[in-house]
Amino acid sequence: METLTQRLGALAADQDVVGTLVLTIEQRERSRFRAMLGNGEVIGVILERGGAALRAGDGLADDSGRVYRVEAAPEPVSTVRSDDPLVLLRAAYHLGNRHTPLEVAKGYLRYRHDHVLDEMVRGLGAEPTHETAPFQPESGAYAGGGHHHG
């Protein structure tokens, strides 16, 4: 089994790659896992612990320098869209208070589908839509380090 051990950061769009790993956010947050390439080949990933989560567009390489591109897998999410920035800001504030991984983009917020969070967001005047989409949450102010209250 091929093993990828090197993080390359964001790849250029025209970077030559030998394969693509389509990974869920759960996989991209881990430092050690197995994944399947599009051709069915199983590949291992062993990265230094404690680094930030992999992001769509990042590169990984094996010891011989072969480069693979990371892509975000579609997964069940709730997406909140609004033309009113205040609606999104309030929803982001309350989701953040619950330490919910959150994708923040122009005109929408996205989080892992959770009916309890959906009800909270509805109570704030927004309407979440259930989708299957790539999920790319913010890395957060405390990425790579501990965050403790008190």
From TrEMBL:
<dbReference type="GO" id="GO:0016151">
    <property type="term" value="F:nickel cation binding"/>
</dbReference>
<dbReference type="InterPro" id="IPR004029">
    <property type="entry name" value="UreE_N"/>
</dbReference>
<keyword id="KW-0963">Cytoplasm</keyword>
<keyword id="KW-0143">Chaperone</keyword>
<dbReference type="InterPro" id="IPR036118">
    <property type="entry name" value="UreE_N_sf"/>
</dbReference>
<comment type="similarity">
    <text>Belongs to the UreE family.</text>
</comment>
<dbReference type="Pfam" id="PF02814">
    <property type="entry name" value="UreE_N"/>
</dbReference>
<dbReference type="GO" id="GO:0006457">
    <property type="term" value="P:protein folding"/>
</dbReference>
<dbReference type="GO" id="GO:0065003">
    <property type="term" value="P:protein-containing complex assembly"/>
</dbReference>
<comment type="function">
    <text>Involved in urease metallocenter assembly. Binds nickel. Probably functions as a nickel donor during metallocenter assembly.</text>
</comment>
<keyword id="KW-0533">Nickel</keyword>
<dbReference type="InterPro" id="IPR007864">
    <property type="entry name" value="UreE_C_dom"/>
</dbReference>
<dbReference type="Pfam" id="PF05194">
    <property type="entry name" value="UreE_C"/>
</dbReference>
<protein>
    <recommendedName>
        <fullName>Urease accessory protein UreE</fullName>
    </recommendedName>
</protein>
<feature type="region of interest" description="Disordered">
    <location>
        <begin position="128"/>
        <end position="150"/>
    </location>
</feature>
<dbReference type="GO" id="GO:0019627">
    <property type="term" value="P:urea metabolic process"/>
</dbReference>
<dbReference type="InterPro" id="IPR012406">
    <property type="entry name" value="UreE"/>
</dbReference>
<dbReference type="GO" id="GO:0005737">
    <property type="term" value="C:cytoplasm"/>
</dbReference>
<dbReference type="GO" id="GO:0051082">
    <property type="term" value="F:unfolded protein binding"/>
</dbReference>
<feature type="domain" description="UreE urease accessory N-terminal">
    <location>
        <begin position="1"/>
        <end position="68"/>
    </location>
</feature>
